[in-house]
Amino acid sequence: xxxxxxxxxxxxxxxxxxxxxxxxxxxxxxxxxxxxxxxxxxxxxxxxxxxxxxxxxxxxxxxxxxxxxxxxxxxxxxxxxxxxxxxxxxxxxxxxxxxxxxxxxxxxxxxxxxxxxxxxxxxxxxxxxxxxxxxxxxxxxxxxxxxxxxxxxxxxxxxxxxxxxxxxxxxxxxxxxxxxxxxxxxxxxxxxxxxxxxxxxxxxxxxxxxxxxxxxxxxxxxxxxxxxxxxxxxxxxxxxxxxxxxxxxxxxxxxxxxxxxxxxxxxxxxxxxxxxxxxxxxxxxxxxxxxxxxxxxxxxxxxxxxxxxxxxxxxxxxxxxxx
Length: 323
Prior knowledge:
The protein is α/β, with parallel strands linked by helices.
């Protein structure tokens, strides 16, 4: 019976339904926390499949696991999986790109509107007994007609664009890999990144984290933004230079930020963003709903089962299975 090693129990727990689905496919589930390369190698020696969240599936790990046939990541990002090493080893990599599109795009819109309407400051004022609009809150502006700049227009960025336009926002986008046809279908105006940052009232980041996009939004880029603008990052912490962001927010060079992902998770106690009142922070939770988690688990299991059964997965990352 093929063995599936699931390396996380807390973030993506399996219940009876998932265990039954694995059993239907003739797969044995083993759950072991594996936060290091050494633990992945130790517990994965007999595994035919790995199901991972953020564990370091490096070239060293892949080369050590001779029987490994498939690696599935619970989610869309792949920065913790060495896909090239997997391809060299003949290991199929799959992911789950669409399970939380609605949730992450909803979270993005919620953060944009909460920041623009000053909800955290207003909530804090009421709780301290102040019924007046606090004098230190920048004046609100009508949302309809403001400009949202979307950095990365894939599934989630596209969903944000559709929802934003329905709510009256103008939309511009930067994505060097998006086709003119796809942007036109979304009714977004393509712009170079610097122009987008300079004109947008709100900027939302939805790019993958790669060597090319690390600190895509840094001190130089933040300086291009309006001091009345807000920045939202629900993609990957490494896309934004957090130190530069904290400095810009503290100095009043940016109105606010909504951050669901950080460069170090969980953040250290001395992370500067934690002390700033003009930041909304959530614990990498934008993807979460009952429906999205059900879809995530089902899709991951079905792709693992497909590969181990000699079939093509629905969401392949590399071309190994089809070769």
